[in-house]
């Protein structure tokens, strides 16, 4: 006889289900219209809405209570991200940044004064903090970044250029990855917090991306921007520790993918039961049934990989678990949203049905936060127990 297999390993608790339901109710009742508006204007959700999210208990839920958060787990945070992102990733963006964004690096590594200034403000919805890591010549090869932070009497002077920062221009603060001192490689990389309005900081034109409407992206220029010493969040030599927090961001990335794919799936599932061709609903065609089953299998598998990565504790996910969840969710989100469009025929391609938006949005996540192939290299490293030099 086969041993009994536990099916309850990833079951949500009653409290988690109630958080999920509250987020679903809020997102479905309040955010659908605003999501449509954002899709046409490309303007990010405004501070008034963010504060409403905060009052309703949806921001910074995994930030410590001491700092204005709710002190819940990373899993609970991602349940909320998913519910908001089922409506649109643009409305989910402030939630995402408040639970898996650079704020978590700040919570873990910043000095007390900086934490006291930034963490409660994020939890109240007053500010969003974005990650400024990539540069024109430092994408996958992030450790080639050239933005410098040079020591002065009062702090550091930043010079350089960032690219692809999600939130650039509208986020109120930036965690800027930079190089302190001479030399190349990872050893002298640091992270410094800078306010949007800081002298010496300016933005290029907003990028026009395939998706991600309402989540701005632009180059950021630092021209002798002097920041106080207390704004140094991560000192040189700690990039490894810093990247461990980034594993959580990867799980947020995977959750955005899952939500895009799930939303496209739900829309197409309803559609194929209504749409008739050859005198019967198209769901009666076996080819459509196979696609539905394939989509559903991938969604549930992606969800389990995310749950596995974040578990139910406060511990940060491992590189293996987060790369696996991100990589798989990145790939299946492109596939599932594409299949959803296909089984809806011309209607899948029409903006009004919202499936093509999920495809456009889903696509970007397989580049953001480290491309799919880099995640696969991380996984191979895990399998053989050593890092592979890319140089
Ligand atoms: C929607 C979106 C949001 C983003 N948000 C942010 C953000 O908020 N903050 C931020 O700092 N950055 C952000 N980025 C930037 C993102 O992190 C980079 O685009 C990403 O790391 C890849 O860098 P790249 O675009 O320079 O591509 P490249 O590094 O030039 O890579 C291009 C391709 O080359 C191949 N490749 C490169 N190196 C290797 C290798 N070693 N092995 C195998 N194949 C390889 C891969 O196929 C890869 O897809 C965002 C990007 C997008 C698209």
Tags for this model:
Butyryl-CoA Dehydrogenase, subunit A, domain 2; eight-stranded mixed sheet; Butyryl-CoA Dehydrogenase, subunit A, domain 3; Butyryl-Coa Dehydrogenase, subunit A, domain 1; alpha+beta; 50% helix; two-stranded antiparallel sheet; binds flavin-adenine dinucleotide
Structural commentary:
This protein is α+β, with helices and mostly antiparallel strands and 391 residues long. The protein has 3 domains: 14-123, Butyryl-Coa Dehydrogenase, subunit A, domain 1, CATH 1.10.540.10; 129-235, Butyryl-CoA Dehydrogenase, subunit A, domain 2, CATH 2.40.110.10; 240-384, Butyryl-CoA Dehydrogenase, subunit A, domain 3 (Up-down Bundle), CATH 1.20.140. It has helices spanning 14-30, 32-41, 47-55, 74-87, 89-99, 102-109, 112-123, 239-274, 286-310, 319-343, 345-348, 355-365, 372-384; strands spanning 129-132, 148-151, 155-166, 173-180, 189-195, 201-203, 217-228, 232-234, 276-277, 280-281. A hairpin with a 2-residue loop joins strand 9 and strand 10. Helix 1 (14-30) runs parallel beside helix 4, helix 8 (239-274) runs parallel beside helix 10 and helix 8 packs antiparallel against helix 12. It binds flavin-adenine dinucleotide. Residues 130-134, 139-140, 164-166, 212, 364, 367-371, 373, 377, 390 line the site of flavin-adenine dinucleotide.
């Amino acid at each position: 006889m086969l041993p009994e297999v536990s099916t309850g390993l990833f079951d949500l608790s009653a409290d988690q289900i109630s958080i999920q339901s509250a987020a679903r109710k809020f997102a479905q009742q309040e955010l659908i219209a605003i999501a449509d508006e954002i899709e046409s204007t490309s303007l990010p959700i405004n501070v008034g809405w963010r504060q409403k999210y905060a009052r309703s208990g949806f921001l910074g839920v995994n930030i410590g209570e001491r700092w204005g958060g709710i002190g819940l787990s990373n899993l609970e945070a991602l349940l909320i991200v998913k519910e908001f992102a089922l409506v649109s990733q643009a409305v989910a963006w402030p939630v995402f940044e408040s639970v898996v964004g650079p704020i978590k690096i700040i919570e873990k590594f910043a000095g007390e004064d900086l934490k006291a200034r930034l963490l409660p403000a994020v939890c109240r919805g007053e500010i969003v903090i974005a990650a400024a890591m990539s540069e024109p010549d430092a994408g996958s090869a992030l450790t080639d970044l050239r933005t410098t932070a040079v020591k002065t009497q009062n702090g550091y002077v930043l010079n350089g250029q960032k690219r692809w920062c999600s939130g650039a221009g509208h986020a109120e603060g930036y965690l800027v990855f930079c190089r302190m001192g001479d030399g190349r490689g990872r050893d002298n990389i640091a992270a410094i917090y800078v306010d949007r309005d800081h002298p010496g900081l300016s933005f290029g034109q907003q990028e026009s991306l395939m998706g991600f409407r309402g989540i701005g992206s632009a180059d950021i220029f630092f021209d002798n921007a002097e920041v106080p010493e207390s704004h140094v969040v991560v000192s040189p030599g700690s990039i490894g520790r810093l990247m461990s927090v980034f594993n959580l961001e990867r799980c947020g990335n995977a959750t955005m993918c899952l939500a895009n794919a799930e939303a496209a799936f739900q829309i197409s599932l309803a559609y194929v039961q209504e749409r008739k061709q050859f005198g019967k609903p198209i769901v009666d065609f076996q080819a459509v049934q196979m696609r539905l089953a394939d989509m559903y299998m991938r969604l549930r598998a992606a969800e389990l990989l995310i749950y596995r990565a974040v578990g139910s504790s406060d511990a940060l996910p491992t590189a293996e678990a987060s790369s696996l969840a991100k990589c798989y969710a990145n790939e299946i989100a492109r596939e599932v949203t594409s299949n959803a469009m296909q089984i809806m025929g011309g209607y899948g391609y029409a903006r009004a049905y919202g499936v093509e938006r999920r495809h456009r949005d889903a696509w970007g996540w397989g580049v953001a936060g480290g491309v799919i192939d880099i995640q696969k290299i991380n996984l191979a490293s895990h399998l053989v127990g050593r890092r592979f030099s890319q140089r």
